[in-house]
Amino acid sequence: MNDDVWSLVHAERAALIEDLTRLDDERWDHPSLCGAWTVHDVVAHLVDTARTTRLGFVSAMVRARFDFDRQNARGVERERGGSPQETLERLRQVASRRSGPPAPLDTRLVEEVVHGEDIRRPLGLTHTYRPEAVVRSLRLQVRTSASFGGAKERVAGLRLVPSDVDLSIGEGPEVCGTALSLLLAVSGRREALDELDGPGVAALRTAA
After folding, report:
1. What is the pTM of this model?
2. pLDDT, tens digit, for every residue of 42-77?
3. Around Cβ 147, how many Cβ atoms within 10 Å?
4. Which of 103, 99, 109 minimizes the C-alpha distance to 147?
5. Strand 159-162 relative to strand 174-177: parallel, antiparallel, unpaired?
């Protein structure tokens, strides 16, 4: 089972590296979908999370006084190279790693899929994700508390119905769309809300 997850993670890392290789330096400064981060910042964050170990994560959280945002900001600062090519080389070096924080292994998929879209969508890039990677990420997000980066509270009382896979999650007013759009929307990417339909969209929009 773990080997299956890591295979998906490594495939997504490789695909992102291929996309990034084709970018000129100016596009690395483009705003991403992830808050105030640029594309370059998100790539640095992915380098940081790929290097993360269980002990290293705990130590970093202690130093950040258990503030996830502060910890992430420090990781970006540490792993952001002096140029896009330097940061890209760092991502290549960690692409095959199999380490992570003390959290469910599927969090590694959430990182790769959601942040992959944080980078690609603003740049007009498209990528076909493996359905299993998206579904596993969506299932994890909806059962994980927002305090740990999930969407449990955001989707409470809603039924998520992906249009491209045989799946239904939750009970209540329906929210319909592709599994990827649902994953992005529940992960706080408001841009994906316009891709959804159903009587539950308004409630999800309010909670996003």
Report:
1. 0.94
2. 999 999 999 998 887 778 778 867 677 788 889 899
3. 9
4. 103
5. parallel
